[in-house]
Design brief:
9 helices, single chain, about 220 residues, Rossmann fold, alpha/beta
Length: about 220
């Protein structure tokens, strides 16, 4: 496309390699509260916001009994592990490539503000990104479209402004579809290509760097 667009980038799992730390933290949080779920089942839900993950994993009863406590305990468990995380290959280069093409870039995260701050520091994009979100900005997380719409509003744009979502999970793709946006994905979320395509992904790449190298093939050329 010949006109600049907006790139709405997921952060956790797409730019920063955090998915397995998040899964382990949820596992420990549930165990501390008397509930044990297989880690692989938790991992399958990473990318969904914590406001929805507890119920999706354990049902309405678990959400009602320990939902808030689990979310609080998750923060306590995940914080010490954040120092272990690193950028995924080509993460900053993707942001730079998008900006070089004249696109506006907003980082759409439902992460805790201090987690988003760390990601911004790792990426070194505070002066490069046009905006970003945190959990303080949205009430309902992915796969609801709210986070993506709030990201556009952060730029002063209407929720139907031309935009492309870049994520790593089926929940990113579903949120994009619910917001009326196409979605490109990287494989770091651990989902199969067939799952991502069935959810509606229009392009699948190994890493952010691979996507950056292939931007000419996308709507973000």
């Amino acid at each position: 496309m010949g006109t600049p667009r907006i790139a709405v980038l997921d952060v956790d799992g797409t730019l920063v390699d955090t998915n397995y730390q998040h899964a382990l933290a949820w596992y420990r949080a549930f165990r501390a509260l008397g509930e044990t779920f297989p880690v692989w089942r938790i991992h399958r839900l990473i990318g969904m916001g914590g406001d929805q993950l507890v119920g999706a994993l354990g049902g309405d009863d678990v959400e009602r009994r320990i939902g808030e406590a689990a979310r609080e305990r998750w923060v306590e468990e995940v914080d010490p592990m954040m120092g272990e995380t690193a950028l995924l290959p080509g993460a900053r280069e993707l942001v730079v490539a998008l900006k070089d093409r004249g696109h506006r870039v907003v980082l759409a995260s439902s992460g805790k503000p201090h987690h988003v701050d760390r990601a911004l520091d790792l990426l070194d994009v505070r002066e490069l990104a046009d905006g970003w979100t945190t959990s303080d900005d949205v009430e309902e997380t992915k796969p609801a479209p709210d986070l993506l719409q709030v990201a556009l509003k952060k730029l002063g744009e209407p929720v139907d402004a031309p935009a492309v979502v870049i994520g790593d999970s089926v929940y990113d793709v579903e949120a994009a579809k619910n917001a009326g946006m196409p979605a490109l994905v990287v494989r770091s979320g651990g989902f199969g290509d067939d799952e991502l395509r069935d959810a509606g992904a229009v392009g699948i790449y190994d890493t952010p760097g691979d996507l950056a190298a292939a931007l000419d093939e996308t709507d973000l050329d």
